[in-house]
Amino acid sequence: MFAAMQFTKGILRLIDQRLLPQEEVWLECRGLESVALAIEDMVIRGAPAIGCAAAYGLALDVQAASLGGGTWDEYRARFHAGISRLARTRPTAVNLFYALDHMRRLGATLASTMSITAAAEEIVKLAEDLAADDLKTCQAIGAHGAKLAEGRKLRILTHCNTGSLATAGYGTALGVIRSLHAAGQVELVYADETRPYLQGSRLTAFELRSEGIPYKVIADSAAAYLMQLRQVDWVIVGADRIAANGDTANKIGTYGLAVQCRHHGIPFYVAAPLATFDTTLATGAEIPVEERSPDEIRYTGGRQMTPVDAPVYNPSFDVTPAALIAGLITEKGVLKPPYTESIDRLLRNSN
Ligand code: MRU
Question: What is the per-residue pLDDT across 135-151, written as a single tens digit (0 to 9) for each?
């Protein structure tokens, strides 16, 4: 299984996901700003991985500050400035804000007179715990999702990259696929290219290949045709934010797949940890959708694909209405409609 990040004292190593699969280059982040830039530039991406990287960014900063000595009280303002900087990197994946909230709450418990060195130990431990929890969570999601297949061998279509590169390891939707494969239940995975950033053809294909899971890359626009030909049994995707009613933001193109599934009578599943649920938002209409650079559309692999000044609209995510989702696969089990009730019940029992 490929890891997206490695943290050792004073350094966060990130595999540069912009260069995969052609090149495996590890970038070394030694400070919070370089982690923030790595998240903005998609060196690291995928909702849970963004949250983990941000937590490590805060850990790097406090480790560096502790070399100069002093108290938590003297460092506190810089800690909160770091949280604000990281919160501005990418708006849609709520896992980022989940990790930053955990850090903010830890900060509030630290005594003003505590040495920065002691505070650094606590902050590093929390960052490491968040990553370890995400890995365990993904493994549990995989197990719950695999049970849904009830022993059948499936042809599965997925979108974007939701694997070990997008999480602390194992993956969400790709974690379910991994668990199904381990049980001998994957006939074939169709990996959508996932334009314009090609997380599917570059990253999901890379992970499926290295795991020996049978797969084919398809153009996003081939999905509906494959469904019409009865070549797809399941569609499973990840999520960047799930509102209180189950509406789900995920990579642009996800909503279209859900509509196609409904037309063809194919179950459309979403796999995500509880950290991806944002019940402060009643519906998906309130989810902030990131709009990325027009150049992601104007250029592919460095080659210009439109007139140089072509006006572009490049939303990075869309929102799938809960009514199109057959089940939300979490680490605590599979939620079924009506989601407002099932989400509320699960979150109340998990707190
Ligand atoms: O823009 P990205 O690559 O960060 O988008 C990633 C996705 O949309 C994933 O499907 C989502 O984060 C779930 S990852 C486990």
Answer: 999 999 999 999 999 99
Q: How far is the CA of 210 from the centre of ligand 1 (A)?
A: 20
Residue of 15, 45, 318 to test ligand 1 pocket, by largest number of atoms within 8 Å of CB: 45
User: Which of ligand 1's atoms lies nearest the C-alpha of 174?
Assistant: 15
- This prediction has a pTM of 0.97
Task: Name residue 12's beta-bridge partners.
Answer: 7, 29
Backbone angles phi, psi at 241, to 5 degrees: -165, 135
Taking only the tens place, the pLDDT of each residue in 198-255 is: 999 999 999 999 999 999 999 999 999 999 999 999 999 999 999 999 999 999 999 9
pLDDT tens digit sequence for 297-333: 999 989 999 999 999 999 999 999 999 999 999 999 9
Mutate which of 89, 96, 162, 320 for ligand 1 pocket (most atoms within 8 A of beta carbon): 162
Q: Is 238 in the pocket of ligand 1 (CB under 6 A)?
A: yes
* Residue 190 CB neighbours (<10 A): 21
Q: Which amino acid is at 200?
A: G
Q: How many CB atoms lie within 10 A of CB 71?
A: 16
Domains of the chain: 5-138 (1.20.120.420), 140-350 (3.40.50.10470)
